[in-house]
Structures are given as C-alpha cells and as structure tokens.
Design brief:
Blueprint: H1 2-23, E1 58-64, H2 68-81, E2 85-91, H3 94-103, E3 112-117, H4 118-122, E4 128-129, E5 151-155, E6 158-163, E7 188-189, H5 197-208, H6 213-227, H7 236-243, E8 249-253, H8 254-257, E9 266-269, E10 278-284, H9 290-300, H10 303-313, H11 340-345, H12 347-359
Amino acid sequence: MKKIIALLLALVLTLGLVACGASEPAATEAPKAEAPAATEAPAAPEAPAEKKPEDYTGNLVIYSPHDPSPLEAGVSMFMEKYPNINVEYLSIPTGEAIQRIAAESENPQCDVLWGGGADTLAGQVELFQPFVSEHDDVIGDAYKDAADMWIGESPLPMCFIYNKTLIDEASVPTTWEGLTDPALKGKIAYANPAKSGSAYTQLCTILFSQPSLDEGWALVDKFIDNLDGKLQDGSSACHKLVAAGEYVLGVTLEKSAVLYADNPDIGFIYPEKNSAVPDGISLVKNCPNQENAELFINYMLSLDVQKDQNVSWKRRPVRSDLAPEGLCELSTLDLGDYDFAYAAVEKTNIIDKWNDLTVG
C-alpha cells in the first residue's frame, strides 16, 4: 500500500512539472532587422548633345597670303561642311596681314591667319593665342610652336622657276650663289621680304647657306645688286611673271612651281642648301568668332582637306599619316642648316638691314 501511494505521489509530481513547463511562454525568434531601403544615386547630368555641322552659325574672317585657287578651294570645302557659317577672307601678303592684325589688336577683325612662314608667325606670337588642334598627334614637333601659338600646315621647300624660252637649262643656277650671275641681272623675280613671308624665309635661307652671317650678308648684297631694284609685293607674282615671260627666273615656293610641271616652257629646280619651313595657321588673339575659328583650323588640318590641297594644288601635307602625292620626299632634298629661332627672333633686325641695303 505504501508503495502504491509513493508511486501515485511521483506521478502527481511528474504531471505537475510537465504542466509547469507547458505554462512557460514559447521562445520566439527575434525579429529580423529590415534592410535599409536602397537609395538611387543621383543621375549624372546629361552631356550636351554634340553639335551637327549645320548647327554652327555666325561669322568667320580669314586673312591669307595663299594663292587664290588653294585658298578658295579650302574655304569652299569648309563652307560646304558648315553651311550656316558666313565666311569672309582677304588674300594679302603675309607682311600686310601681320600689320593689319597688329593695327586691329584693340578691336580684332580677323579670326584666323591661314598661311605665312612659321618663322614670321613665331616672331609675332603676341598677336595670337594658343590652340591645340584635335590632329595634334599626327603633326610632328618640328611643325608646331612649343607654346601652341601657331601650327604648321604645309612644309615649303624653295625652288628656282625658269622660262625655258628665255634661258638654256644648262645655264640655270642650282645654288643661291648662282643668283648673282651677271647674266641674270634684272631678270630675276623676287618678292620683297618686308612684305612677303616666303621671301623672308628665302632671304634667311640665303643667309644660313654660308659659313657665317657676315658671309651670308655679303652674298645677299650681291644678290640685291643683281635684282637691279626690281622687287615684287607678293610671292605669287614671281612664278606668274616668269610664266608670262616677263622674267627669266624667279625664286618661289615648291607649291607654286610644281603647278607648271606639265607646261613645256617652264622648269624648276630645288637649289642646294634649301629650307622647308612650314606655312602656319594661327588663332588671332581675342578674335570675335573663336568657336568658328577653331573649327576652321581643325578642318584645314583634317585628312580630307590636307589630301585635297596636296592632290589638287600640290601643297605638301604636314600630317605624318599622309604621304605627299606628286612631290619628292623631303629626305631627297639638300636641306641646309636653317636657324629657325634666329629667323624668328631677329626678324625686325634682318628686315631693317635688308631695307638699308636696298634703299642705301
């Protein structure tokens, strides 16, 4: 009996414990923290839509010493691509163009000087403002200003052009010294270096062809005497006068001489100790139409225009990715030691001395 009672008590205690356990609250999982709501990054501002060629408007004024045909061809190509830009150009010798830009500096009228020897432009950098072309990577350092004040657009070797009906080809000089031959007195067409950038380069080429500047000036003095007081205002007149039979021989640029390659009466040679200073193109300081001016410079250095100027007008391209057609390689010419820095820095003194020799 005692055993039964003990068993009953144990059973009651066990049931009580179970009941107590069942009465405790069930464990619950801690609520998961909600992830912070994702926030969108602020939208980047949309890049302005790229302008189409017809979206460019306004004006553009160009001064250029180039011959009319390549000048008009280049401008026409630009106007065809940018039909809503009104383009005006003035064809004048480099010296006159520089003088006009200087005189207008307080109220610039011109946007771009297209042409003129880079040595002349380098001596007048205060008239220009820096510009790096989008074609900079295909233009060698020798053909652009270190401070980006001018960009070469066509290297220009010099030539002697002659009229075969007036001179035996065996008598045509092949050196700068040959220009002092008494048989050619008064018969050489040469532009005034004070007005023509290419004539200035030719003058410096003569100076640098000699062992010293003193000897160079002595040669120039003899050359001046052989000109017999006859000077042209612009370089383009020289080849035209020879072709017309008014002069036996002229000092001119390759780009002009090669235009007569198919003329049986006209010949040309590259003189020894030559130079190949490039024509340049510059953005005029504080020009009124800078956006259009930059468009023009980039376009003149583009592959299409450089190729057309070469094929159509025999202008030597400056781009390293475009081989010249119809022209010899520069490496085949006898290029002298042209002191570009001296020609640029000393231009005023050189021209003053030239004037003293021609007037005096």
